[in-house]
Amino acid sequence: MECMSNFDGSALDGHLLKLLLAVLETGSITAAADRLGVTQSAVSHLLDKLRAITGDPLFVKRGRGIVPTARAEALAQPARDMLHQMQLFAQGAEFDPAAWQTELTIAANDFQRDLLLPALAMRLRTAAPGVTLRILPSGAPSAELLRSDACQLVISPRPPDGTDIVQKRLFEDQYRVFYDASVRSAPATEADYLAADHTTVAYEAHRGLDLDRQLLARGVRRRFAVRVPGFAALPAFVRGTALLTTAPSLLARTALAGLASAPVPVVCPAMPMYLIWHVRYQQDAAHRWLRGEVEGVVGPVLTLRCDANRK
């Protein structure tokens, strides 16, 4: 391996930075080649060039796979930052969504995913046909999800803490209790509600909805028979049973369509929904446009809810 001092730093380019991140994130030469749309031999050749520039093996064999060296892991964030700066350099002051060629990653759980992102995808296909929309589950999102650039936006009722994290409220929904009307009637009183068995969503072990933390603070405790990892799983456990599930009312349009619903007979907090991003994108023209497109789909969604409630 030639010493890195024999190489001009200008030999480093965006292709090499993308290669480093692809191998780091996939842990595989083959998978990195698939992601980048090149051959394995091309990845190996470029990786040899990057090793020569950095003066480090970057990845070493372990069993049948490879693992990154400490130097490779340390280069990950600088590589992301440089790619971001290259993108800003290429875009310049003017931004034309019709000419944008990129993959956008948004983290959202099934509620907000099914409610908002199909409409966003339609808008992108019209205004920015060169954009591919990739969607990840956000779970209970962490600040690192945005700091690592694993996604460019998060849509969640739970903004992570961090002085470098920016948030904007998109809308607020109210909870309703959903049930199978062929099996049982709606709980009429708080006593009926608390006497029933419930199913709920838990994205992390030992952490339920914010709703239950707030109810518990008032001494109200629900009895759970089933916990599932997302709202989309709730109907399978409610249909044909006497179980209740308490969920945002807008789910009547998506995952919980077909189940009966009624007001929750206990005082419930509202569920806010936020658009969340990292501060490094605050002034980015493309990102500002994308945020505007997400906000643009919210109004029609809420209008449809109001129309449905009037029927």
UniProtKB/TrEMBL annotation:
PROSITE patterns to which the protein is assigned, alphabetical: HTH_LYSR
Statement: the UniProt record of this protein carries the keyword Transcription: yes
Record key words, sorted: DNA-binding, Transcription, Transcription regulation
Presence of the UniProt keyword Transcription regulation in the record: yes
Matching InterPro entries: LysR-type_TF, LysR_HTH_N, LysR_subst-bd, WH-like_DNA-bd_sf, WH_DNA-bd_sf, YidZ_PBP2
Every HTH lysR-type domain range: 12-69
Single Gene Ontology MF annotation: DNA-binding transcription factor activity
Entries under PANTHER family matching the protein: HTH-TYPE TRANSCRIPTIONAL REGULATOR LEUO, HTH-TYPE TRANSCRIPTIONAL REGULATOR LEUO-RELATED
Family: Belongs to the LysR transcriptional regulatory family.
Name of the protein in its database record: LysR family transcriptional regulator
